[in-house]
Write a structure and sequence with these properties.
seven-stranded parallel beta sheet; 252 residues; alpha/beta; globular
């Protein structure tokens, strides 16, 4: 077990692409971080990070909805390397479907991946932190869809609003234990789905630009910078908050 005080140990899920990949890259560039990365599948970018940061990036290929497997990975990692002091729960799936065509099984599937998996990780980390009396900072990547109405996004909205509700309650319950929980809710971001969105939904893409006061989508790197601050030691007094990074959308 690594007991170095200068080394910050963290967890990032959904680290293979988009926001999760940008977060992982920026963490590893800081040198004093040991990162446990979990993603459903491995890719060229993750292979490259594993080679460049052999001592600081421990990657597991796993489905976050497999709770027992994820818990074992976390426990084994902490037994070997030390307690995780921060986590960024980013893994999730998008879901666009008209409400009347969305059956209950689809709602359950999206909730399982986007919400229950993050709750499971939070409970695992909180349990260890309370027992060991150690500090832990947990950040959930939510979305502006969680707090605003969007056509054909009810399944996705339910998963994100439920996650935000859990975060607020857990933040209040464990604030006395020096455990922080917050949500970061991006607007539309140039992540892995952006090119297909622009090509296949041109009118909708133009509408998103019109709705965004800054007139553009955000970048994964911009969201990552904010995420890193929210789990950093500099952020010592914020808990139970939803931080929007959406080019001004929610301010309208």
């Amino acid at each position: 077990m690594n007991n170095s005080r200068s080394l910050r140990i963290g967890l990032v899920t959904g680290c293979g692409k988009g926001i999760g990949l940008a977060i992982t890259k920026q963490l590893l560039e800081k040198k004093n971080h040991l990162v446990l990365g979990i993603s459903k599948s491995k890719n060229i970018d993750l292979d490259s990070l594993s080679k460049r940061h052999k001592q600081n990036f421990i990657f597991y290929e796993a489905d976050v909805s497999e709770a027992e497997i994820i818990n074992k990975i976390i426990r084994d990692f902490q037994n070997k390397y030390g307690l995780i002091s921060f986590a960024i729960c980013n893994a999730g799936v998008r879901s666009r479907m008209p409400l009347l065509e969305s059956n209950l099984d689809l709602y359950r599937k999206i909730l399982e991946i986007n919400t229950i998996s993050s709750i499971n990780i939070a409970k695992e980390l909180i349990n260890v932190s309370v027992r060991s009396k150690s500090k832990c900072n947990i950040l959930f990547i939510s979305s502006i869809v969680g707090s605003r109405g969007f056509e054909e996004l009810s399944t996705y909205a339910v998963s994100k609003s439920a996650l935000e509700g859990f975060m607020k309650s857990a933040a209040v319950e464990f604030a006395k234990d020096n455990i922080q929980l917050n949500c970061l809710a991006p607007g539309f971001v140039e992540s892995s789905y952006a090119n297909d969105f622009k090509r296949n939904k041109k009118e909708l893409y133009e509408w998103t630009l019109q709705q965004t006061p800054m007139g553009r989508w955000g970048s994964c790197e911009e969201i990552a910078e904010l995420a890193l601050f929210l789990v950093s030691e500099k952020n010592s007094y914020m808990t139970g908050s939803i931080i929007y990074s959406d080019g001004g959308w929610t301010a309208k």
